[in-house]
Amino acid sequence: MLIFISCNDDLPTACFDINYSIIEVDQEIYLSNCSENADNYLWDFGNDSVTTTKSPIISYDEAGTYTITLTAFKDKQQNIAFYDITVID
């Protein structure tokens, strides 16, 4: 499911919830950011699209498998969570 790694409570911990593993082309999904100890965020949706929105709504316009990556930042520290999603026609 989601993978996050942190050894220090003061470091950011990237985390997000997604209710789907398979979606249809153009189906909107809400990504709920549950990161802790973070000031900034960078999402990469695996389709050359990125955003710094805390909890974005996204959709894909082509079928395929994509890795959604969230990087949570605090000061000079960062932590990453990721999840693979399949988009079908």
Q: What report would you give on this structure?
A:
The protein is an all-beta fold. It starts with 15 loop residues before the first strand and ends with a strand.
> What is the topology, as strand order, of the major beta sheet?
2-9-8-5-6
Work out the count of structural domains: 1
Q: H/E element string?
A: EEEEEEEEE
Strand content: over 45%
Low-confidence parts: none
- Radius of gyration, whole Å: 13 Å
Quick gist of this model?
The chain has 89 residues and is mostly beta strands. It has strands spanning 16-17, 22-24, 29-30, 32-33, 40-44, 50-51, 57-58, 64-74, 77-88. The protein has one domain (16-88): Immunoglobulins (Immunoglobulin-like).
Features:
single chain, 89 residues, mainly beta, Immunoglobulin-like, five-stranded mixed sheet, two-stranded antiparallel ribbon, elongated
How is this fold's topology laid out?
Elements: E1 16-17, E2 22-24, E3 29-30, E4 32-33, E5 40-44, E6 50-51, E7 57-58, E8 64-74, E9 77-88
